[in-house]
Design brief:
mainly alpha, 4 helices, elongated
Length: 129
């Protein structure tokens, strides 16, 4: 029995609307309001926490920061890839993967529709063959 909100005709799982995959126009922003006023970045939050903890434990914040770094280095030395990556990213910058995708002038929606059509065609051939 179909639920009240579903007529039962559409049982396929939907994968988003290709019409919503239109890129931003030049000069247009995906976040026009920007960051909320008063919102702090991660670095500021961490430095404030180190300062508060240092004051509470009567430790100089710079010494506390050095101790935290030393623990991270020790964990990286013992094989923690997470800590190694964090230290490496801090020293040398985060690695980025650069992928060049060209579409030959087609929109993303057209490319997705073509890919879905190719999958259906391949599945149909496998069933027939």
């Amino acid at each position: 029995m179909a639920s009240a909100g579903n007529s039962g005709n559409n049982t396929k799982k939907r994968r988003g609307n290709p019409q919503n995959l239109i890129p931003w126009k030049p000069g247009e922003s995906g976040n026009p309001k920007g960051r909320k006023l008063g919102a702090r970045n991660r670095k500021t939050v961490i430095l404030d926490a180190i300062e508060r903890i240092g004051k509470a434990k009567n430790i100089d914040p710079a010494e506390l920061e050095d101790a935290i770094q030393a623990v991270g280095i020790e964990k990286a030395f013992r094989g923690s890839f997470f800590h190694y990556e964090a230290i490496s990213d801090g020293l040398y910058g985060k690695l980025t993967d650069k992928v060049d995708v060209t579409s030959g002038g087609k929109t993303i929606a057209d490319l997705i529709a073509a890919a879905n059509g190719a999958r259906r065609s391949k599945a149909k051939k496998e069933v027939q063959g």
